[in-house]
Amino acid sequence: MTKSQQRIPALLLAWAALLAPVAAEPLRFTDVTATSGIDLVSTSGRQPSRDILEVNGGGLALLDFDRDGDLDLFLANGATLDDPEQGPGSRLYSNNGDGTFEDVSGRVGLTLRRWAMGVAVGDYDGDGDDDLYVTCFGPNVLLRNEIDVTGRFVDATAAAGVGDARWSTSAAFGDVDADGDLDLYVANYLEFDPAQPPDRRGRMFMGVPVMAGPSGLKAQADVLYENLGGGTFREATSARGCVPAQPGYGLGVRLFDFDRDGWQDIFVGNDSQENFLFHNLGAGKFKEVGVVSGIASNYDGGNQATMGIALADVDGNGYADVFTTNFSSDTNTLHLKLEGRWFDDRTSQFGLGLVSRPFLGWGAGFYDFDSDADEDLFVANGHVYPEAAGGKMDTDYEQPPLLFERRGKRFERVLDAGAIGATPYSGRATAFGDIDDDGDVDVIMTTLNGKPRVFRNDSPQRGVVVVELRDRRGSRHPQGSVVELTAATGVQRRWVGGGSFQSVDAPVAYFGLGPADSASLKLRVVWSDGTAVEHSNLPVGRRLTVTRGSTKLETMPLGGRKR
Amino acid sequence: MVLAVGNGTAATDPVTAAGPAEPASAPHAPLPPPGFMDGCLKLIEQERYDEARQLLEPVVANHPGWARAQLYLALTYHKEGRYELARGLFERALAVDPEYHVAKFYYGWCLYYLGEPAAARAMFEAFLVRKPDYADAIFALALVDFDADDVESARTRLNRVIELAVAATDHATEAKARARLADVLVRVGQLAAARAELERSIELNPNNYETYFKLSRVLDRLGDGAGAERARQMHQQVRQRIRPAVGSQPAHREP
């Protein structure tokens, strides 16, 4: 419960209790950080933060870097303003197979000490394993995965030509020109000189002096890298038409086919400015359609401070709807994809509006945490202004995550789901995946200058189907693919690949099943180039693996990977 | 006197319409001179919140049982959009005088902006028991209904607000109600009707830049790309005239 909620008069609380749903809330999470083996206390400048460089925190990725079948964890770590190039270093943790982790950074040659922000995962060189692209304040870093050859990651930035030296936040791989290799989009934020931080004088929020930015600071343009094959890229932002009228304060990026025309589009969430939607007109030529499509802002044209992005087919019309997290005293926004090329702000229709006003949201994800055949929603929260402590800004500095359960047509906030409920954090990036191989979706959330929190999903589980995709050479991150599961209760869809804010989720489609859903299940995988494969009569409670170019469906029991 | 509150402008001022003029409990310090409270209200009206607070804080300290003083001090924060700071003062005003319906009205808006629609609804409904035809409170309930996806109730309430505003020749209230009615119509797919409401809303209040944006969205979906572009340009022009451009704002956007 937030401090503000604690001040609600008893009469109102009693009144609200009368209105509250009486059904038990089955969502249950346990904070297993202490026993997870993840010992990194992140660094992001000073505590409390005083400048804008210090407030975003580090991102994370769930990936299977060693191809042993479980989800490993990369944590991007920052530094301090007095030496942004020499922080304590980012970390790679190997999963022990049971959801506990071991720091293998030294063993695999991960020596990145620059102020890292976010991460993208993809097999850029097509050798079958997943590489890391780490966004930084300063030159970004491409780490080629040579685990199966030398046992190490190798810095391939210079050879690949992707060392953008600006302040980058989120990045995403995707095959925008459908030539079979992964291109790369990098969202950049703003110009900032640690030696001369912008003047705080006169900067106010809700009557309280605060740090400077982003408004008033110069935005830095994003960049699109085209993969040329052979491990090299070329900068193709203008050539491909990814040029908005003005650069934005980019914080989030997601590649997906918004209009289902078989081409990967690019959505960029911008801070305090209009979001961008680059419509892929074919063969990787883009046109910016954010404003015209309706996704650039909220329902009344207000530019929002978009941080995180989450995709789901909330209304079941087959298109990906786009949820964005925003600043406090504003709402998060659900941009519903309508027929045609239109998005419409339907935040309130689905119960995600006013409830989010006290919170400043970051990473988010739609997942069926209780495997009841609909997707729930998790949002990490935490304010950027330390001055928000004590309710002076209608919010608090540390804030609890928002957990919503899908109930009928609406999402309803779950106030007590074990470890997720009342406890406030300086939450930032999120990654979602089944880290303990029990078939349900766990949550890892980074915190500012703190340990990432590992929330193990202990919700009662029903029938599940878990679908993993493999590219032809074995890559686990087939960006931009869509997995559809048809059951008696309807069609569920998952957009695989990418993350929310500076993050990468597990590249896995998790499906929960309704009570009558176990018979006649059909699976359809639409790869990023629009080609599709179908399978029917699926087993329940199994992990299914679909490989691109193959009609074979591999199955294995859940929990079969525990050592 | 007219006080702009929340999303709209009150047709009449509920503050002066009712409420205890004297402390509910015996004062332990001299009461302020006659006209003092009216002066404070004028400062609030003139957006001179710090000055109003300086005057009101000692009064509230000396007369904690004076609900009206608590309310006025609450309004100095509420009108600045600092709702959490206003909340406690509204609560104290209502604790002193649980029947102080004017405080319920403003507290309702405060709760709405703090993201507590159920509690806000209770306040507005309680207020309307005393003032059943108060347009801004009906408007507020329409917004709460809309957030709850009760579009039919929202539509009914907004039509009632329009009825009241027309009768009172209150163009500002009618304009905002029509713009919100357009939201309802868009939600249920009645785009042509939404367009008509938005165009009428703009006639009534051409300074509401958000309405141009909403009109652009509807025109786009109706296939009138040129009209949508014109509406977008008007949105930008009016917004720049009414609000400072992005880049000159001090920090993160406030709603």
Supply the key terms.
heterodimer; A: 563 residues; mainly beta; four-stranded antiparallel β-sheet; globular; disordered N terminus; B: 255 residues; mainly alpha; Serine Threonine Protein Phosphatase 5, Tetratricopeptide repeat; 2 domains; two-stranded antiparallel sheet; 2 strands; elongated; disordered C terminus
Write up this protein.
Chain A is built from four helices and 39 strands. By secondary structure, chain A is mainly β. Chain A has a five-stranded mixed beta sheet with strand order 5-4-3-2-34, with no helix packed on it. A four-stranded antiparallel beta sheet of chain A has the order 1-30-29-28, with no helix packed on it. Chain A has a four-stranded antiparallel beta sheet with strand order 6-7-8-9. In chain A, 4% of the residues lie in helices and 36% in strands. Chain B has 255 residues and is mostly helical. Chain B has two domains: 35-132, Alpha Horseshoe (Serine Threonine Protein Phosphatase 5, Tetratricopeptide repeat), CATH 1.25.40.10; 134-255, Serine Threonine Protein Phosphatase 5, Tetratricopeptide repeat (Alpha Horseshoe). Helices cover 68% and strands 2% of the residues of chain B. In chain B, strand 1 and strand 2 (8-9) form a beta hairpin. The two termini of chain B are 25 Å apart. In chain B, 51% of the residues are buried. The model of chain B is unreliable at 1-13 and 245-255 (pLDDT under 50). The interface between A and B is large, with 62 and 48 residues.
